[in-house]
Each structure stands twice: as C-alpha cells, then as structure tokens.
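#structure-requests
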Amino acid sequence: MSKVIITYNKMLAPYYRRFNINVGKRLFSTCYPEIETEYYCNIKNCSEIKQNINQRKGVGSLDHVLELYHILKTTSTSANSYENVKKDFYKELMLLPNRTHPLVQQYGENPVTVTTLNEKKDFGIHKPLEFSEITEFLNLMRTDRLGYTCDNKSYYYFGELAEYEEALIKYTVSSLLKKGFKLVSVPDILPSAIITSCGMTVNSDRTQIYSLDPILHGPDLYLSGTAEMSLAGLFKNTLHSSDKLPIKLAAVSRCYRAETSNVLDERGTYRVHQFTKVEMFIVSHPNLSDQMLEYIRKTQEELFTPLGIHMRVLDMPPHELGAPAYRKYDIEAWMPGRNNYGEISSCSNCTDYQSRRLNIKYNDGKTDNYVHTLNGTACAIPRMLISLMETHQQAKGKIEIPEILQPYMNNKKNIVKNTVMPKLKLLKIKH
C-alpha cells in the first residue's frame, strides 16, 4: 500500500492525516526548484516572455533573471559568491508569472462572458435591501464595535444566519463527496516555502498574508489565505503513478487575508480579513488539465445554479490571472441590494507552476514528469450569503431558503427575525 510522504517542515507533521491517495516513492527535495531555465533563459523567447509579464501586471524582471544567468554561466567566482548569485537567480526566476493560455492572450483588458445562469429576480416596486440592512433588521449579524475581540473587517453571525453558513458548508461538502472528491482537514499555519511555491508573496508591502510574530511563535510562520496552499503543500516531494490521476481533494478551512479596500462596491462583509471557504484542488496529468479546468467550472455551476441566484461566468484576461494561473474563470453573482455583480468563486489551471516549485511529479511508466495543479472555490461563505439573502428577500422582512438547502436547515423554509439573541450594547468602562 503506497502512501504520501511528507518531507517539509516537521512542525506541520502532526496536522496531517493519511488518506487513500496512492503515491509511488519518495522524491528527495533539492535546494532549487526545477523551473524551465531552457525556456526563460533562451534569448529567442525574450519578446514572448516580456509581453506576458507586461500583460500580467509586470510581475518579475526577465532582464534581472538573464543578467544573473549570464553571471552564473560566464563568471569565475568563489564557491560562496557563486552560491549567493545562484540563490538570487532562483529567487528572481520564481517571481516570473506562468505562461498564459493562447486564447486568453487575445482578450485585452476585459473578461469574456462564457455563459449566464438563472434570471435576475424581479422585485417589482419593492426596492431590495443590502445584506447589511437585512441582517440589521433581522438582528443576524454584527460588524461594528468589535474592539474587544477583533479588528475591523470582521463579523459575528447570529442564529439562523450562523445556521445558514453551516448549511452551505454541509451542502457543498456533500455534493463534492458524491462527485468523488476526498475531504481533507488542513492546517491554517504554514511556512513561507509552501506559500511562495503556490505563487503568493510574504513580507512585502503588497502581501495579503498575515505573518506570525517570530519571537512569540517561532520563525517563518504564516496564516493560510486559502486551503489551496495546504493541499498543494501536502503533495510536496511526491511521485504519482499516471494511472492514479486525477486526484480530487476538497477542504473546509478558515481563510485569512490582510488585504483591505476602500472601494465602495467592496463595502461591508464583501471583503473581510477572515472567512470560511470550501476549496477544490486537483492534481492532474498535463494532457488533462484543460479538461479538468472545465470540469471544476462545471462543478461550480452545478453547485450554484440550484441556489436560485443570477450569475455570469467570465473567462478572465491576463492582468487578472495572478502569477500561478495559466487560465482562470470567475463566477460573479448578482447582488440586488447592491445593484451590482460580485465575485463568488474562481477556478484556475496552474499547469506545472506550483508542481515545479513543490517537486510534485508523476511517472508514465518510462519517465518522471511534473503534474498540473488546479484549484477552484466551491463555496466562499460571506459573498455567497450576500447574494442569497439579497436575492431571496421578501417585502415583509423574511428570507426564503432555497429548497435544496432546506434539508440542511432542519427543513426551515424561511429565515426570520432573531429574537433569542438580544441586540448587544457595549458599556463604556471608566478607568
């Protein structure tokens, strides 16, 4: 019986559990990832790579990579100097973005609408309320005066809204299990090597990653922004038999984001510092990754359509992809109270961007090659609740629960005003 071999940070070992994924043999890690230097350092590809960098928000510097590569190949230096240059070379090389799907390269600045799902609800003369107005009226949420417990961009759900969150999680997980996904419980604290290998940055001015105090908690520890990072890290330094691919995993986790926004459309709980999300993650044979991306998108559509919310599916342009993605779909839901669309999920094909950095391979019976990794949001709770509550609000102050979710809500058909939890008033304490 083959098993997963975990070879990175020993501190994480207690968090992981074995599950039935067949993996062949241990792969020993190397000091540097096997990124395609024959492509990125070939002068013939300069124009193509620079164009891709420009389209992808100017991430990374090819000129700096080539300069360091030239030093490594032509300059005689001491062993220490050579090693320092080599470290800088791979550090810069890892910053370069993934290639972009040829079709997506033609999109310019705007996404392409793939399809729309469900019709917009007609409220007639009734003006739909925003999520924050609904939850205030029904006494279901608190977002202000949280100084005793947490910072801004946080929230409490009360009563049936908290039940609604659990119902969405149970519905999503149940649906994914029926589709053959394996459920994994993941750690929320990770080392930087896992996070950066997945394409995120740490300890920079623009980072979205929370870092833990190195004096109090130990060096090199960070809060995970998505279960994708932990799931990808689980496979670090592993070799898979090609006939066991694809491997489909799902995880429910708390996600931590340091990002903030003053954009009006992202007010309230649309963008928060921590939230619950159900994530899909697939390890695929390279020849099947395009097909697997469509499979994830179809799975998302099948999950969201029965919820009765109006959506549009977008094929995103290069500047929206982020460094790891080769192609990415977003699904935006109509939020009637806000009178606007809001992103509720995305799915990406990262090809071998993450697998090269994490040393994840498959064997086809002859040679070892890098797998492709894909990820997709199955349910991001705060934004899903915004769309559901705003879409299914009634004029008399109750919220209809979609029929498919009712079994996960003790067969309740409506959410009504919370009278059990009193409205809380903070007392001013005199020192």
